[in-house]
Amino acid sequence: MVGHRIEILFLRDDADPTPAYRLRDNGDIVPIPLGRCGLVAFDERALPDLAQAREWFPHHFRLWDAVRAQFWDALLPPGGTRRPTSGT
């Protein structure tokens, strides 16, 4: 979390046999030769927020939902109420 923004550093799917790579903000893919298969590292100069990561990797919707839930749990005081939101 950076303020009220969720920045995604990387995504790792141990079931994915795709060789590790870094996804640059401009869409370029840079291999990570010694990286673990299933690892996607994001451009450290322009980390994507949760909405962008969800758009790029929609099949991981359960993960993104869990991240969003943890985000709200961290922002709200204990016993606070959360209003449903669309998107992130």
Short characterization:
25% of the residues lie in helices and 15% in strands.
- Residues in β-strands, percent: 5-15%
**Tally of helical runs:** 2
User: What is the subunit arrangement here?
Assistant: single chain
| Helix/strand class | alpha+beta
Report strand order across the widest sheet.
Answer: 1-4-2-3
| Overall pLDDT level | 88
Gyration radius from CA atoms, angstroms: 15 Å
What low-confidence regions span 5 or more consecutive residues with pLDDT below 50?
A: none
The succession of helices and strands, N to C, reads EEEEHH
Overall 3D form:
elongated
Structure write-up:
The structure is a single chain. By secondary structure, this protein is of the alpha+beta class. It is 25% helix and 15% strand. It is built from two helices and four strands. It has helices spanning 50-56, 61-75, and strands at 10-12, 21-23, 29-31, 39-42. The chain has a four-stranded mixed β-sheet with strand order 1-4-2-3, with no helix packed on it. The chain is elongated.
